[in-house]
Every structure is written in structure tokens, then in C-alpha cells.
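Morning!

As promised:
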Amino acid sequence: MSSRQIIVENLIKRYEGDFYAVNDVSFLVNAGEIFGFLGPNGAGKSTTITMLTTLSLPTSGKAHVGGFDVITQAQQVRRIAGVALQDIGLDPVMKSLELLTMQGQLFGMSRMDSIKRAKELLELVRLSEFTDRPVGKYSGGMRRRLDLAMALVHKPEILFLDEPTTGLDPASRRDVWAEVRRLNVEEGMTIFLTTQYLEEADELSDRIAIINAGKIAVEGQPAELKAGLGAESINVTFSDLPTAELARSALVDMVDRAQIDRKTLRLYLQKAAYAIPNVVNKLNELNLQPLSLTLTQPTLDDVFLQVTGQRFVDEKEETEEKAPAEAVA
Amino acid sequence: MTAISQPIAQPITEKSNGMPLWRQITMMTWRNLVVIRRTPASVVPGLIISVFFLFIYEASLSGASGFLLGPGQSYLAFILPVSLISASLSGSGVAGQYIVRDIENGYFDKLLLTPVSRIALLSGPVLAGAVILAFQTAVILFVATLMGLQPATGFLGYVAVLVFGVMLGTGFAGFAVSVALLTGSAAATSGASFAFFPLTFLTATFVPLDFLSGWLKTAAQLNPITYVLQANREILLNGWNWEAIGSGLIAVAILGLIPFGIALFSLRQRTTRK
């Protein structure tokens, strides 16, 4: 058992009233990997992370973090795991240097060492100029960065990030991504991150698992999952649904799979670009006039649609919903 | 004890609490004092009210002192302990308030993710609260001195009364702390520190115990606060009456141990993983 692995076997979290927040989840995170745990709100992402980080107990099942059992060896897990939770828990009247120094000392560092480490980390997350300002006066992005620094104080081997970019503006989000990559590449940290952004999972993760309604729907490398859908697709939009249906029956034999999403016919096939002339000819033959025709690489959204039969939550809507909650916090 | 003072690396199992417990406790206490210093609004009103009580009681009843007390005895020294006890009770809420604050802003969970001892999470705010209680008591004693207080036991009398105030308030802190840990609610916690306020009046508040009669006398005799009050009065008015002081200490112990038993139980409730 490698020390930087996460092994989860048949993990279940049941709340009163027979609600299964996490329902028989198993997965493996390899040492030195960035593992994206993707799912819509309420899918069970945070519940999983609270169990893996020793804040709550599984109803049943097993989990090992860095070779330690999260149920019986919680104290050891806390030593090697760094955790940045979705709700940033920082005392608003304290200052960044104080919080980081205390955190270091609680992990057993001497006062001198933890001050040194704190300054190093403040430099790293670009907060060195703001050490005199109480954390309550920080912007959302600054607090998120400080929280990340808090998680890194004791040089963890495995880092847990629960929705690290939710509520952040695009620039801050890119900053967090760059930092996550750096920690993974330069420090060899295993990183487990949950996200509700498809783009983020796609961009950062070596491997992902999609969780929906407490169950893992699919697991694998983003590229592999997308490739599994039949590589690319040609999307032909028509003025109405009957026309799209007609086109599908005419074209379905030419492709791997044809699917109708509203008035758009999606044709999944290998080397889709080569097939465009044939598709256009066939449509001409039948005198079916498309409104538009596009070629797309599959996205994780398509993967999600395929494995769950529903579209992923609209990202924009989600950010807007989240924003006021963030402001209150 | 020698093991603690040796700076040699400890085995991994020992390292799970990296820092010696007493260092964790001092650090948590310091942290809470920093927070209290930056949010003084939660401490100042209780202090003002206690000083206000002292003025009012003294002004309204000191004229009757010749009749209530022995000749030449000061009503100020007689009523001062009431003010001190009410300050202890209102100051006892401080620890609970600051625990609830950490629970609400999420910092409590953050601390639970570190190897910090659970006992340090409880003792930090409680000891910070004790420092505040000592400060409050000292301020009230200072004001009383300006008003003409001359304790029968001199300077040591001040110290003894201060120690009583801190012990009583720290004991009572257990109640607000328990409510804070069990409910995580600020409203419930501030309510808890007022729950025992009636105890300061179900006793020989304004007149000596012998002047009471009927149900109030019975209530006062059962109320442990009465014995704390009498110990303080003896120290300020008459001198080192060890019997009264002994009863006072027993009363303080009873008033402190019960809340802290509950507080330890609540701490376990809050920090046990569910």
C-alpha cells in the first residue's frame, strides 16, 4: 500500500430517514495523481470528503488515506492530509500570520519554524502584503488562498480540496488551478478535489469520477471517457423535431450512434470531419434543410449525459446561485 | 515531567500531539484573549452593569447600615460581594460565547482537523474567560476603593475576593460552554449565562441572612451562592473567618464541578464523529 494513495471501498453514509448521501462508493486514487470528484450540488461530494478527512464517520465501508484507516487512525490521517473545506473556516478577527503560525505549532512545529513556514506560504499565495489586515476584511479570493495556505502548513502528502474555486472570479480560479498543478508536479502531492465545474475537472484531473445521487456513475481519465463516447460528434440542428427525426432515420446507419437532443441531431462517430460531406449529401438528397451544422469534440458534459441520462447543471446558473451565499459567509 | 523538557524527537505515536498539552492550552488561551481584545463589545457591558449595581445599592441602602450591620461597619463592604458575584455570573458567559463564535465561523472544524487536544479546545476559552473575570473583578474592586472601601483583611483581602470571583465565574462558565457545544447557537448560549441570575437574588442579597425569614430564608440557606457571599463579606468586613471561607470554597466547588462535568460531556458530544 503506497503511502500517498486513497483507497475507498464500499463507502456508505446514511442519514436519518434512510437518506443515502453516499451510497456504496468505491474508488482508488493513485499516488501523485490529481483526482477530480465531479458532481452536481448534493451529489455526495462534500459528504465523501468529510469522511475521508475524519470529520465524520462512514455508516459502513472502508477508506484508507495514505495507508491509514480513516476510522481507526484518524489522528495519523490528520497529520498527512491537508484539507481546504468548501466553507472556509477562518476566524475573521485573526490575521493571516497568526493563523498560519498557530496552525504550524498545532502540527508540532517550533514557534520559529512555524513563523518561517507561515511567511513562506504567504509569499506563495501572494498575501505577504496583507498580513496586518484581519482575515474578515479579505476578499473571497484572498480568503480562499489563505485557506489553501492553511492546508499546506504541515507539508501534507495528500491534499483534499472541496470545491476550491466555487464563487471565485475567473482570474482567481486560474490562480488556484496553477497552484494545484504546481503542488502536484513540484511537491508530488496527491490531490483529491471535488468540483461542480466540468471544465475544472477536465483541465486539472489525471482521472475523474462522476458522482450522481450518492453513486459513482463513471470513473476514468477524462480523455478516455470522452473517447469512449465514440470520439467526436456532428451536430445538425433543424427547424423542428419531425425533421430531425427524419434525418436520424436516414443517417443512423452511417454513424456509431445518433441521438436527438431537442431539435439537434447528434451523430457520434470516429473521424467525424471526414464524414461531413456524406452527411451533407444525404441531407441534400432528402431535401432536409439544416439550420446549422457543427463538429464537436465530446465534453465531460456529454459523458455525464450518457451515464446519467440527464444534462449536467448549467454552470452559469450555478455560479449565480452560489454567489450570494458566498457574500454572506 | 522530565520527558516533556527533553527536546529529543518523540516517536510517531507521541508526535500525534506534536505540542505538549500545556503549550496547546496556553496557545488556545492566548488566541482567545487576542480575539476578546479585538471584540471588547462582548465584555464591556457586563462590567458596566456590575459597577452600576454597586453605585445604586450603595446609594440606596447605605443609610440603613447602622441598623442592618454592626456599629461602624460599611454597607459598601457588605454589598460589594453582590456586585462581584453578579459580575462573575455575567462574565461566565464569555467562554461559551467565544466557543459558539468559532463553531459559527467554521474555525472550530478547522481546529478539529489538526492534532490539537480536545481538552485544549475547551480550556483555551475557559482560561481566557478566567483572565477576563480577574480583570472585571479588579476593576470593580478599584472602583470600590475609590468609593472608600477598606477591607478588614487589607491587601490580601482583595486577593482572596478576586480569587473567589474568578473561581465562581469559571465554574459557572461550564454551563454556557455546555450549551455552546451542544447547540452551536449564539442565542441559546447567551441565554444560558442569564439562567442563573436569579440565584444572586435568592440569597441574603441586601440584608444579612439572619434578617431573612420564611421561604426566602430557606431558599437562601440552600443556595450555594449564599456561602460565597458570606465568605466574601467576612473577608471584607471582619477578617479571616476560616469557617466561612471553608464553606465558601465548598460552595464554589459544587457550583463549578457540576457545570464542568456537563461541559466535558458536551465536548465529547461535539467532537465525536457522527
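Confidence is low (pLDDT under 50) at residues 314-329 of chain A.

Hope this helps with the figure draft.
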